[in-house]
Structures are given as C-alpha cells and as structure tokens.
Specification:
The chain is an alpha/beta fold and 339 residues long. The chain is built from 12 helices and 13 strands. Helix 4 runs parallel beside helix 5, helix 4 packs across helix 12 and helix 9 crosses helix 10.
Length: 339
C-alpha cells in the first residue's frame, strides 16, 4: 500500500483496455471509481473490479461508486433495487424519527449487500449537505432534510448501515454544498453566507460526523472563509474549517477534478488539491490524457495521508451477520423498492 499514489481513477468502459492496464500498473492508484458506463451485467462488473485490483496488486483496493438512491444510483435494476432518494427517508423521519433512522440504516445495509456482490467496497454516501430555499437542485432530493440536526442523525445511521456491511462510507460535500446556487459540475458556485450562519447550519452535520473514516470536499467558494478559492483547493477552508473547526481527521478526497468548477490544466488542479490539504485526488471520467496529466503531479501516499488511508480501509473487515432477506423485507415494508 505504501507504493499507492494519492489518486482514485475511473475507467472508460465495461472492461479495461491494454492501455489502461499498463497505465494502472505503472501508476498504482490507491483506488478506483465506477460509473454507469462501467456497469452492464453482474459477471462483467465483477471481472472489471477484479481486473482493476489486479493492476495494483491489492485484492482489497477500494472501489468506489455513487450509490445514494433516487436519481444518483449507478447500479440500477436488475443489478440492484431501485431505491428512494434521501428526501423520502427524511420525510419518514419527520413523521416518525425512529422509523426514519431505521430506514436510513436499512437502505445503506442493502446498498452494502448489493455492492459487495460485485466487489465494490466503498460508497460515496451519506450526503450531509443541508439545502436552503432557492438553492440549485444539484443537491435537492439527495439531502435528507433542510434541518441540519435531521441530516446529521440520518447521515450517521446511513454510514453505520454501510459499515455494518463492510462498505466504506464517504461523507460529502465538506464543508457543505446545500447553499450553492449553481451546479459545480458546470460552474463554480459562490456562497456568500457569513461564517456564523455556516457554523449554525451547514457545518453542523459534518461536525456531528467528524469521526467518519472518509470525506469528500465541495467545489464551492465560501467568501467568508476564502473569497478566492473553492474548498477543494483552499488551505484555509481545509485546515481552518474542515480539519480545525469541524474536527475531521479522516481521509479527505477531492470531488471530481474534472468538474468545471475548477480552473487550470489537470496537473495544476491535482497539485493545488494536494497542496491545500486533501489526501487524495479523485478523477472520474476515464479519459487517458487527463488521468496521465493528473498522475504526473500526484505523489505516493505518505505520512499522515497514508495513515488515514490505512485507517479508512481497516473498517472494511467489520461485517455483521445480518441476513439480506430480512433486511430487504423490513425495508420493503417501509418503501416499495422495485427489484
């Protein structure tokens, strides 16, 4: 593991090309990430994941996916059930808090059953963003609620469900994307709320989950903290807020380095992400020229970042003996998940 580079990479298609195999073997990324373009049928996904791990010589290398439920769900029927969005679970919480928390745990436990069948062992969940009125719908129904204490409680239950199934949770998007009035996939959102407002609202769920093993940054400028740089490339946001005020000491990965919210060429972006204090750079789209540029500027995991990476994957060995059928039946009684 000490030779792994501080990067998570995607792949272009449903199987690895000879070029990708040679590249991954040479660069040794710490982990990989799957998207819908990589997912066709069960045997193919298992073979793809195994091939990725074989390239880096690590049978337990983390393989990530965005499997939230609702509109952000890479594995869909018939490979996995169609799950409700976080907002539906949050609505249940507001009617019956205990039922809402149980539903969040159950759905994550089902995600873990689903993902483990394909060798996937990390899920970019829970979303801890707290939307405000008028914010862009990029978060929208992906959030549990508009009250930070509900988001915190639901996020904790969701993370625990993943961990119970041996899947690594990733809290996102630190220190809060819910106030953004644009989509960071396409442009750079600027949040002008005061630090006091952010502390009382946006930071609350992240502070409550500061002991999580892994987190993802937001490509968002917070003018009251750093008026120039988005959180992902801002040492002020990462050191003062994420590591300092929030108290998060887990492995911190960037959101996707190829999103248009970031500026500069890919090597410059990767260098800025690590210089700001992120531990790992995420590159998702599988475009070889971009991956090459990123990897040229990314060093091997070392020091505190390596320690955090080792601590994050250590939890993957903890799996409970819950039976899938019982969990699915209980969840289905709450929500009509379509298999």
């Amino acid at each position: 593991m000490s030779e792994s580079k501080a990067v998570i990479l995607g792949a272009a298609g449903t199987s690895l090309t000879d070029e990708e195999i040679a590249f991954y073997k040479g660069e040794r990324p710490w982990g990989f990430i799957l998207f819908a373009r990589n997912i066709a049928e069960p045997g193919q996904v298992r073979d793809l994941v195994a091939a990725m791990r074989d390239c880096v010589g690590n049978p337990d290398a983390p393989v990530f996916v965005d499997q939230e439920g609702g509109r952000v769900q890479r594995f869909r029927a018939p490979l996995a059930a169609e799950y409700p969005p976080a907002s539906a679970l949050g609505a249940l919480y507001q009617h019956d808090p205990q039922a809402g928390l149980r539903a969040a745990w159950l759905m994550s436990r089902l995600h873990a059953f689903d993902l483990r069948k394909y060798g996937v062992n990390a899920d970019c969940l829970p979303v801890l963003d707290v939307p405000v009125e008028g914010a862009h719908d990029v978060i929208g129904g992906r959030a549990y609620a508009k009250r930070p204490e509900i988001v915190a409680a639901m996020g904790k239950a969701a993370a625990e469900g993943l961990e119970a199934g041996g899947v690594l949770p990733v809290i996102k998007h630190m220190p809060g994307h819910g106030r953004a009035f644009s989509d960071s996939h396409h442009q750079l959102p600027v949040v002008e709320a005061s630090l006091d407002v952010l502390r009382a609202h946006d930071f609350v769920p992240f502070r409550a989950m500061r002991d999580a093993p892994m987190g993802m940054t937001a490509h968002v400028v917070y003018t009251s903290i750093d008026p120039e740089k988005p959180a992902t490339t801002s040492a002020r946001v990462i050191e003062t807020i994420i590591r300092g005020e929030i108290g998060f000491d887990g492995l911190l990965m960037s959101d996707d380095v190829s999103m248009r919210a970031l500026s500069g060429d890919f090597g410059t972006r990767a260098e800025a992400i690590l210089a700001a204090g992120c531990d790992v750079v995420l590159h998702c789209n599988g475009v070889m020229s971009e991956m090459s540029a990123v990897c040229e500027r990314v060093p091997a995991l070392a020091g505190r970042s390596l320690e955090r990476a080792k601590a994050a994957v250590k939890g993957l060995a903890r799996r409970d003996d819950t039976l899938e059928a019982a969990v699915r039946a209980e969840f289905d009684a709450m929500f009509a998940a379509v298999a």
